[in-house]
Design goal:
single chain, alpha+beta, Jelly Rolls, 5 helices, 8 strands, globular
């Protein structure tokens, strides 16, 4: 495949996600130069909890289960991420090991951005880099809000169950 067509293909894949609302077509084309495309079969691992590789992904086709090990080391599904959503963005910010695993639910296509590519993006196209960073911050904020809501529901249920005893 010719490199220009790969960039155009990535831009077209991104155009069908919520990311495109923040970017013009020209910006999507520029951003796509810094990104890659990965395809995973159903059941394939995108990354494992504890991995130290630093990249994020945008699900452009398919879906990914996010799995977290409990105290007994059993993997529990904590989220299912669908088309247009980001995964792995925390590692881009904190450079810490993966806090959870990601496994393709069905055949899945991801557009990826490595930490090195993001750093190059900041140097070469800072305005686009800032938009990407804002999108990462928004995504993390939304997930924190969801997690807080789930935690409150859990605490409320635990309180209610404690009163029944």
């Amino acid at each position: 495949m010719h490199i220009g067509s790969a960039i155009t293909e990535r831009a077209e894949l991104l155009e069908d996600t919520s990311l495109s609302m923040e970017f013009t077509w020209a910006e999507l084309m520029d951003l796509s130069q810094y990104m890659g495309t990965m395809r995973y079969r159903s059941g394939a691992t995108v990354f494992k909890e504890g991995d130290r590789d630093v990249f994020m992904c945008i699900v452009v086709k398919g879906g990914v289960n996010i799995l977290k090990r409990d105290e007994g080391m059993t993997e529990r599904r904590v989220a299912q991420i669908g088309r247009g959503k980001m995964i792995g963005e925390m590692s881009m910010i904190d450079n810490c090991p993966r806090s959870a695993s990601a496994v393709a639910v069905i055949d899945t296509t991801l557009v990826t951005l490595t930490k090195d590519s993001m750093n190059r993006l900041f140097k070469e196209r800072p305005a686009i880099g800032i938009k990407v960073l804002q999108k990462i911050a928004f995504s993390m904020s939304q997930r924190l809000r969801q997690t807080t809501g789930v935690l409150v529901d859990y605490l409320e249920k635990a309180e209610t169950d404690g009163e029944d005893e």
